[in-house]
Amino acid sequence: MHAALPQDRFFAWPELNGGAIDIALVATHPRGTFARLPNLKLVQSMWMGVETLVDDPELPRHVPLARLIDPGMVHAMAETVLAHLLDWHRHHYYYRRMQREARWSRLEQVLPSDRTVGLLGLGELGSYAAERLLALGFNVCGWSRRPKALPGVKCTTDVDELLARSQAVVCLLPLTPQTRGILNARAFARMPRGGCVVNVARGAHLVVQDLVAALDSGQLAHAYLDVFDPEPLPPESPLWAHPGVTVTPHIAALNDPRTSIPKIVENVERVRRGEAPRHLVDFSAGY
Amino acid sequence: MHAALPQDRFFAWPELNGGAIDIALVATHPRGTFARLPNLKLVQSMWMGVETLVDDPELPRHVPLARLIDPGMVHAMAETVLAHLLDWHRHHYYYRRMQREARWSRLEQVLPSDRTVGLLGLGELGSYAAERLLALGFNVCGWSRRPKALPGVKCTTDVDELLARSQAVVCLLPLTPQTRGILNARAFARMPRGGCVVNVARGAHLVVQDLVAALDSGQLAHAYLDVFDPEPLPPESPLWAHPGVTVTPHIAALNDPRTSIPKIVENVERVRRGEAPRHLVDFSAGY
Question: pTM value?
Answer without folding.
Answer: 0.94
